[in-house]
């Protein structure tokens, strides 16, 4: 199974397809694609990004994703798999994948096309070093000034996002960067209910499958308290990979206003929030 759609035949030439990309989105896509597959084989996947390494970068995310696909598809059955991204903003991007078989020839070729290096750490992890620089801070600053009036549509909006995956929380935060929204993040349904009780919130974006209490149960508890206390219903979005018709019907019956199916794009998230946000 692939993290994403990859290059078609004939796209391996040594060109320079540098584009700006979000490292957190790559991490999320790989976690979503491979966690269930590895779990079925008795292997746990951990995905982490070092502090300072998550800034937007320029490089070839398509070949990077294909290399990660090749590595993650061949885990070492004796242990768990860890995917770790690091690299200070002014340094190359480093990716370590531990708990996998030695990299196949195809992965080595792709790293070479990206003008990077692939070797093995003393612990046996595959280590990629890639010349993917971060987006220039001055460019980001100028873009932010130019886009402030347009790209901050949610100024003052108080959002609660809930997901048990730190990677998914990071991706949503990045997608909502520069929108003006204030974000509170929690990792289970019980925290959702408690935060709703104590904080001033305008909208909920809830994963469904969470520990302690799932998102649907959390919203049902909130709806019951709203009715009991005479409080207005807070808009709620189900953010889930479980999006079959009978499941969506259950979410609506449970009190959700709408849903976003994982994986989703930034514009879909923005449009959904805009449609449900309270307007003065």
Automatic annotation (TrEMBL):
One GO process term, biological-process aspect: phosphorelay signal transduction system
Keywords: Phosphoprotein, Two-component regulatory system
Highest rank taxon of the organism: Bacteria
Domain Response regulatory intervals: 158-277
Entry keyword annotation includes Phosphoprotein: yes
SMART domains for the chain: REC (SM00448)
Name of one Pfam family that matches: Response_reg
Positions of modified residues (4-aspartylphosphate): 207
InterPro entries cross-referenced by the UniProt entry: CheY-like_superfamily (IPR011006), Sig_transdc_resp-reg_receiver (IPR001789)
Keyword Phosphoprotein: yes
Name of the molecule in the record: CheY chemotaxis protein or a CheY-like REC (Receiver) domain
Provenance organism: Gemmobacter megaterium
